[in-house]
UniProtKB/TrEMBL annotation:
GO terms for cellular component: cytoplasm; excinuclease repair complex. This is UvrABC system protein C. One of its GO terms (biological process) is SOS response. The keyword Hydrolase does not apply. It comes from the Bacteria. The UvrABC repair system catalyzes the recognition and processing of DNA lesions. UvrC both incises the 5' and 3' sides of the lesion. The N-terminal half is responsible for the 3' incision and the C-terminal half is responsible for the 5' incision. Interacts with UvrB in an incision complex. It is found in: Cytoplasm. PROSITE patterns: GIY_YIG, UVR, UVRC. CDD domains: GIY-YIG_UvrC_Cho. InterPro entries: GIY-YIG_endonuc, GIY-YIG_endonuc_sf, GIY-YIG_UvrC_Cho, RuvA_2-like, UVR_dom, UVR_dom_sf, UvrABC_protein_C, UvrC. The lineage of its organism: Bacteria, Bacillati, Bacillota, Bacilli, Lactobacillales. The keyword Transit peptide does not apply.
Length: 603
């Protein structure tokens, strides 16, 4: 049931198009949507019953905002801008780049053909995207052999190696006529657009002549080129009667999940297929529209000449925003392709459901067990901290992140502690790392975690809560992870009185805590060993007379450990630019400690 605050705001909603921003109790934006009629759309979330991701989102909404737009088209554009800016948890979000390679013919006096990953408005010709780098490279190498342009760096007064191999037109030693390049480029464009029959005929003729001249190696090379055309360039079935580059989108929705299929049709062939699966909050039509607009808002994505979509999408608005025709075919091969994409989307989603049943209890189910046990609202992100040092030396802290019960290693962070006077002071270490982490998030305007886990007891918890509440004015639940006398996960500490929260040791929630505790400890220890080993080696070298910062850097860069330096000969050490007396002293000083260093490197 909606709160009194939300009920009052619902009564004031306008009958106009625009965007709405749903917020949680921490004032974080968790969902952005658009609507032709804000009053009807936003009210539907709180006045109707929901299941799945919609119900979950609504249960976390504590407030909302609306932004009115003049037209429905403006609301599309604003929604994409807001999603990319705030990255709300419940929205479909796409990565910035596609990573697909393209073949490019450069716009130069002496053009060349190359593989690129970015599209620039530089007058060059771009072909692709290709399914992978290998396919693009193989196609490019074939073109360089059959339709050479320039492969050298330009004029150098003599023919380059590629000219002698027949893979360069000779810009290295002469002026190649522009007409010659234009002729080759026309053939390359024709070939890349799927017209391969002429090339095959020419190669067959060349192979026949090479065989007649008893040039069997040359004939075999041409035979391999013909084979490459047949198995790589022509392996895709021709699915269209025209050469229009087009992308095709279709979807299947069930149980709050949207399964999307994208077909890339190039050179009259289905060159690549992508599939995406998302739990969604809005209608399938609205989510599909948002997905398509985000899809083409990424860098490194060439718009096709035509986009095909299923019936029911706002084709006109999408077309106006993207600047290309957006059509829904009603007959023929294009309609059949849409049907095939829909069938594939359904198969992908059914497979996903089977996998979800097996995974859910270990991830989101485990998160819910933990938040229920702690008496907290549903959460998605946990940030966990641990410290590491050896008798106070080289203190470090590490942070790991778990989102919906799964580790998110891209967000892990390492900290070399700077302000701690007594390096064995757990409270001071905690204060520094918590202060540094969340001061930065505040400055950058990034969302806070739902919970913070500290690997330790009351000391670490109280220090973390002190910084969060009294210095940063943040209200983030802090939970302690306690171990028993066997150094195994035992239970949690939580609340103002740091009370023990016992989880069922056979539950998925307990296993998740165990994974988090083991992972943050592993990450901290690994980082500390690397820092400590480096410092130990540096300190040992500094004790040797004649070894200064430059010599130490040379040895560390070359060998990396005391054992390896000790095993090196005097001549090998001297070859780094170190004088012989110093090299001899390094050898003698470290050799007797080599076994000790070797043993410590395996700890």
């Amino acid at each position: 049931m909606a709160s009194e605050h939300i009920e009052h705001k619902l009564a004031l909603l306008p009958d106009k198009p625009g965007c709405y921003l749903m917020k949680n109790i921490n004032d974080q934006i968790i969902y952005v949507g658009k609507a032709k009629n804000l009053k009807n759309r936003v009210r539907s979330y709180f006045k109707s019953s929901h299941t799945g991701k919609v119900a979950k989102m609504v249960s976390e909404v504590a407030d909302f905002e609306t932004i009115i737009t003049s037209t429905n088209k403006e609301s599309f554009l604003l929604e994409i801008t807001l999603i990319q800016k705030h990255q709300p948890y419940f929205n479909i979000k796409l990565k910035k780049g596609t990573g697909y390679p393209y073949i490019k013919i450069t716009n130069e006096r002496d053009p060349q053909i190359k593989i690129v990953s970015k599209i620039k408005k530089d007058g060059g010709y771009y072909f692709g995207p290709y399914p992978n780098v290998y396919a693009a490279e193989e196609t490019m190498h074939f073109i360089q052999k059959v339709y050479p342009l320039r492969r050298c760096n330009g004029y150098q007064g003599r023919p380059c190696l590629y000219y002698h191999m027949g893979q360069c037109l000779g810009a290295c030693f002469k002026e190649v006529p522009t007409e010659k390049y234009e002729q080759q480029i026309r053939k390359i464009k024709s070939f890349l657009n799927g017209n391969t029959s002429m090339v095959k005929q020419q190669l067959m003729e060349k192979m026949r002549k090479a065989s007649e001249k008893m040039e069997f190696e040359r004939a075999a090379e041409i035979r391999d080129q013909i084979h490459y055309i047949e198995v790589t360039v022509e392996k895709q079935k021709i699915i269209s009667n025209d050469k229009t580059p087009r992308d095709l989108f279709n979807f299947y929705m069930d149980k709050g999940w949207l399964s999307i299929q994208i077909f890339f049709i190039r050179q009259a062939r289905l060159m690549k297929r992508e599939k995406r699966l998302f739990p969604i909050v809005d209608t399938a039509v609205e989510e599909m529209t948002s997905f398509i607009l985000q899809f083409y808002n990424r860098r490194n994505n060439i718009l096709p000449r035509e986009i095909l979509v299923p019936k029911g999408l706002p084709n006109k608005e999408i077309s106006e925003i993207l600047g290309v025709p957006v059509r829904t075919p009603i007959r023929g091969e294009k309609r059949d392709l849409l049907a095939m994409a829909h069938e594939n989307a359904q198969l992908s989603l059914n497979e996903k459901f089977r996998l979800l049943e097996m995974d859910q209890s270990k991830t989101t189910g485990a998160m819910k067990e933990i938040t229920d046990a702690l008496g907290l609202p549903a959460g998605h992100r946990i940030e966990a901290f641990d410290h590491s040092h050896i008798q106070g030396a080289d203190p470090v802290s590490a942070m790991v992140v778990f989102i919906n019960g799964e580790s998110a290693k891209n967000f892990y962070r390492k900290y070399k502690l700077k302000t701690v006077v007594n390096h064995a002071d757990e409270a001071a270490s905690t204060r520094e790392v918590i202060r540094r982490r969340y001061t930065r998030l505040l400055k950058e305007g990034k969302p806070m975690p739902d919970m913070i886990f500290m690997d330790g007891g009351e000391i670490q918890m109280d220090a973390a809560k002190d910084v969060l509440e009294n210095e940063l004015n943040l209200d983030i639940p802090v939970v302690g992870m306690v171990k028993n006398d066997k150094h195994q996960t035992a239970d949690l500490l939580f609340g103002n009185d740091d009370r023990h929260i016992n989880l069922n040791p056979r539950s998925q929630g307990f296993y998740l805590v165990q994974r988090i505790q083991d992972e943050v400890h592993r990450f901290a220890i690994t980082f500390h060993r690397r820092v400590h080993t480096k410092h130990s080696l540096s300190s040992r070298l500094d004790e040797i007379k004649g070894v200064g910062p430059r010599t130490r850097t040379k040895l560390l860069r070359k060998y990396g450990s005391i054992t390896k330096i000790a095993q090196a000969s005097v001549d090998e050490i001297q070859s780094l630019g170190i004088n012989r007396p110093t090299a001899q002293l390094i050898k003698v000083s470290l050799q007797k400690n080599a076994e000790v260093a070797k043993g410590s490197s395996h700890d």
